[in-house]
Amino acid sequence: MDIPKKVKNSSAIASWSGFIYQGKIALYHCIHSLIYEDSKPYNLKVESLDDFVIYGHEGEVLSLHQVKAKLDSKRSAYKEALIQAAEVTGPGVDKNTKRWFHVARELDDFSSLTPSNIPQNIVEFYCYSDGNRYLPLDQVDGILEKIVSEYLLKLKKYNSPLLIQYKLSLLQTLLDAKVISAHSKIHNEAEIKFDAANKTPISFEEIEECLNAEVLDETDECMILNRFRRNILERTDSLIESNEVSPQFSLADILACRKAIAHMDLPKLKRLYYAKKPNLSSVKLEGLSQEGVENYIAIIALINKLVTVPDLPHYQQLEFGTYLPTAIRLTISNERLSLSEIQNNVEALRENAVVQDVLYEYNNLIVEMKHSPFLLSEASKLTGKFMDVSEVGDQENSRLTKIHNVRFISSEDAQEELSD
Asked: What ranges in 61-203 are assigned the alpha helix state H?
């Protein structure tokens, strides 16, 4: 495949916030195309020939998109990037390919660029539905909600704020699942940008499936779990972005956790939801507290060497076994009362078929607390007792197992043990 060296080795991402902005702009354009264009595009590729590219059914490049999230308002600051956008070439690119340039700030000049050496490669500033040729970072979520609403109106489908948020959650997770794999290969495995991105196309059929997904109401489990996923992914985004300026922790584990959660199917996501805080009685919106997500991600950010396959994200150590991060928080100064709270969480684990196997698969549960590590036997009479563990609704695979004398440990103590 004849790809220019400059395209192959360039990196479109100046910052993590720019990467997130770029993805949302790509989703906006795709939905806008489904509503207003007569010919249906075939797929989207992010970070391939350009920041994102729209392909037709025959492999032709319908449009090339360069996205800049800079806050500079002078057109001159974008001169080099505009010239680069005009020079992009590769398989499927021809005189009919549109070249769009996206910016996050109003500029002093939005006129198109017509290169003297290749006058057919005109680069135009993208025009959004509000008539502006720029889209500020803090307005991208609002315009995404609006374009999803327009899509639903066109198809005469039920439209509500809850439904729009659910569909956007699915779309952003779809983007994460496809693109984060390529992104981690580029930044962690030194794979060439084009090669990594070219292997992870997002079809417009997948985008339409997300847009047409239905949700019943605020008790819909699928909707809640996907919102739970988004909460975690958005928290990792803010951590990664803040870490770019003054690195305080390794990005490898945050990226690994983000990738694993973006790819989780709903059964595994449900296990994570309960394992995070076992005393939740059911999957409900109240279980999506920001505090719980913060507690969970804080552990991932603090401790290195996260294992993300084949089960929930966890850690391993030869002497003490496996460690499962949780959002359990024991802030009570009286240790006896804290042990009582642990008892409640253990009872919830034991009675919940979705996550009861945590008590025999993991040796240590990482919690937020000030106490020294202690064993389950100090908080519960359940250790050593047999219990029935089965897949939900699968009686054939049910089995009896013995509860581990699982250990509760703070993130600081776990970090020290795992670093040995």
From this structure: 79-87, 140-154, 161-188, 193-198
Token pair for 219: 């008790």
What is the CB-side half-sphere exposure of residue 302 using CA atoms within 13 A? 19
Place of tokens 């021809």: 94
Question: Both tokens of residue 370?
Answer: 């000030």
State the residue for tokens 């959004």: 128
pLDDT at 104: 94
Alpha-carbon distances of 63 from 14, 41, 250, 314, 321, rounded to whole Å: 22, 10, 36, 42, 52
Q: What angle do CA 290, 167, 307 make, to 5 degrees?
A: 50
pTM: 0.78
- Given a contact cutoff of 8 angstroms between Cβ atoms, the answer to whether 383 and 376 are in contact is yes
| Model pLDDT for residues 211-243, shown as the tens digit of each residue | 998 876 777 888 888 888 988 888 888 888 887
Which residue positions in the chain have pLDDT lower than 50?
Answer: 1, 3-13, 382-401
Q: Residue type at 365?
A: L
pLDDT in tens, 29-52: 999 999 998 777 899 988 778 889
Nearest to 65 by CA among 110, 107, 126: 126
Between CA 203 and CA 216 the distance in angstroms is 26
